[in-house]
Each structure stands twice: as structure tokens, then as C-alpha cells.
Amino acid sequence: MKSRDFTKTGPVAMVAHACVLVVVVCLLGAAVSHAATDEADSPLTVYVAVGVLDVDEISSADQRFTINYFAQFRWVDSRLAHDGPGTIRRDITDITAPRFLILNQQKVWSSLLNVVDITPEGEAVFRQRLWGDFSQPLRLHDFPFDKHTFELPMVSFGGLEQQVIMAPDPQRSSLIADNLSVADWRILGYQTEVREIPLTNDVSVQGFVFSFEAERIFTHYVVKYIIPLFLIVMMSWVVFWIDPTEAGSQLSVAVTATLTLIAYHIALAGKLPDIPYLTRMDLFLFCSTLLVFVALVEVVLTSRLARSDRVELARQYDFYSRMVFPAAYLAAAAWALL
């Protein structure tokens, strides 16, 4: 068989060969473009792991908590693959990468650079270390016997045109430290979840949420506020053992108890924010103040009876008050605190 010399083919054949080459090049370009489009359209999964290293403070009055935390975001993007030989480091603003935001962060300080470590296979790892304040709305109806869930809602924004899906990292578990700085709260547990996070009434985004549950240690409030309140109210009952003819002594005790309760109201005002409802402590304070005020009214009434020569009737009022007031106060305390 003789080999064919393509250089001696006619012009028609040469044009045909050129057309075939053009078609092949176009098909290859379309395939590459289609693959790139598919990659851009497919969701990017970002694996997240969070570690709360310390909880410095939980402020009920300011509706916030202060923590020291570490987070790792890991994803694979073939567009970031390189020739190696090892991991390279790039600023996150210099590459095509998702950006991450904690929605409730207030004042925070970062101790790590905004850099991404990239392996030759295109696996990217971004690490974040923050210390600062995070807002948290609290329902304080049960104060000081309350417990709350504190959240770190994380979302991805900007940096990529494709959708970003955040998920717990199967290679690294989230955690919270055992020894924490916060003294008046007890950590009960923590969890991670992926859910829709509402931004407005009509708009929500998919995000990653790390949350921990904490319970207030109420011993401080019992010793420093509740027990002294019991003693102050019991002090106001001393007037029932003072003879109604000694109106000056009765009034002195009753007024002293009232003024002491006012001072307690002022002391507790800084522990809570301005909220449109009453807490358990508010109800207990209200019941205490009301009974002390009623005791003051009873003193005025018995003193007036004594001056009207009805001393025996005034003494009967005092006698029954010795039983009625303690019973009413115990019932009110149980209703408010239990």
C-alpha cells in the first residue's frame, strides 16, 4: 500500500481538514467551559469546627456574653489546586474564597491573620481566633433561677458566586473548655447544627450555629439578696409586739424597713436590663415591699385607735397580724420564687 501525501491534496481537502480542526477545538472549549460552569453552579461545602476556649462574662443587664473562641473552616475547590510541592498560604482577599461572619458579634479582636492554607489538591483551611462580645437576647422571667442558650450563628457571604453549604467537620469535633473564667454560671452542654438563620421577617440564610446552654448559679442571690429581704420584712413585724400606745417606736421600725427595701430596689436595678415584664426577683421584691407597706398602714391604724381610747381593739389587730403577716409572706414567697 502506498502512503498518501497530504501535501499534494487539493484545496477542497485542505479546507475540509481545517474545518474539522476548528470543530474539534470548539468542542473542546465548550467542554471545558461547561465543566467550569458546572463547578461554579454546584454548591461548595464548607466544613466547620468551633472551639470555645473561655467564657469570660455573661451580662444579663447588657444582654451579651464575652468569649474567647477558635474556628476552622475547611473546603475543597479545584480552582485553588497548585503544583506544590507543599501547602501554600494566601491572604483570603487574594483568592476566590467564601467569607465568614458571626451575625451577633459586637466588639471583637482577632489574633490570627486572615490567611488560607491551600494544599496542592485544592483543600483550603481558614482559621479564625476571636475574643470579644456577642449579643444574646435573654428571657429573664425566671431570674435568678434561669438558664439560657447562647448562640454563635455563622454564615457565609460574598467571595463566591456559587452557593455555600456549611456543615460540621467530620475530621474535627467542636468543643467547649472545661475550666472557664465565668464564676456565676454553670455550663450544661453544647451542640452544633445547620439551620436556616432569619435575617429579617421574610429573609433567612443557611448557616452553621454553635450553641451552649448555661445555668445561673443562684446561691449568690439567695445569700446576698433573698435572705436579707426575709430578715427586713421580719423586722417590720416587730411592730406587732410593740404596744400600740408607743406609736413613735412602731413608726420608726416600719419606716426603717421601708427605706431599706428602697435601697435594695436600687441595688438590684443594675443587675437587669429595662425589660417590659417582671422576673421572679421582681415579684418577690414587690411582695416584700407591699407587706412592709401594709405593716406601716397597720401601725398608723393601731396608733389612731390607741389615741381614740380603743387600745384593746388595737391590740387585737396586732395579735392577729402576728399570724396573718408571716403566713401571707410565706405564701407570696413561694408563689414568686418557686
From TrEMBL:
Residues 39-182 form the Neurotransmitter-gated ion-channel ligand-binding domain. It is a multi-pass membrane protein. Residues 226-303 form the Neurotransmitter-gated ion-channel transmembrane domain. It is found in: Cell membrane; Membrane. GO terms for molecular function: extracellular ligand-gated monoatomic ion channel activity; transmembrane signaling receptor activity. The keyword Cell wall biogenesis/degradation does not apply. Residues 1-35 form the signal peptide. InterPro entries: GABAA/Glycine_rcpt, Neur_chan_lig-bd, Neur_chan_lig-bd_sf, Neur_channel, Neuro-gated_channel_TM_sf, Neuro_actylchol_rec, Neurotrans-gated_channel_TM. Coiled coil: none annotated. GO terms for cellular component: plasma membrane. The chain crosses the membrane at residues 225-242, 251-271, 283-307, 319-337. It comes from the Bacteria. SUPFAM superfamilies: Neurotransmitter-gated ion-channel transmembrane pore (SSF90112), Nicotinic receptor ligand binding domain-like (SSF63712). Keywords: Cell membrane, Ion channel, Ion transport, Membrane, Signal, Transmembrane, Transmembrane helix, Transport. The keyword Lipoprotein does not apply. This is Neurotransmitter-gated ion-channel ligand-binding domain-containing protein. It comes from Pseudohalioglobus sediminis.
